[in-house]
Automatic annotation (TrEMBL):
GO terms for molecular function: DNA binding. It comes from Longispora fulva. InterPro entries: Metal_resp_DNA-bind_regulator, Tscrpt_reg_PadR_N, WH-like_DNA-bd_sf, WH_DNA-bd_sf. It comes from the Bacteria. Residues 16-90 form the Transcription regulator PadR N-terminal domain. It holds the Pfam family PadR. Keywords: DNA-binding. This is DNA-binding PadR family transcriptional regulator.
Amino acid sequence: MHITKDLVAAAATPMVLGILAQGESYGYAIIKQILELSGGNLEWTEGLLYPLLHRLERLGHVEATWRTAAGERRRKYYSITDQGRAELAEQRRQWAAVIDALKGAWQLTVPALEAQA
């Protein structure tokens, strides 16, 4: 399934903040988790994720630290801040309103679509 660039962009911040609210993570792991959460429908690239992480860091929503785990290469780990948790809560409220509106709008179209079938 192709998901439009606009829809991916709109969901990017709450998606990343939601993942980081579960615990710190690094870029590749975030991309992999998004792919899994979407059932393979969202294939993010580093070119999408890292500018977003840098923006979230500048805004104070996430913090980053470099670490090297035993036997692994050096990675930059990201964690959500208190400000990021507040932003995530606000984004969840906004998305809930959008989802409710979509459900209402689409429910109105079901009889019309069934009549056309």
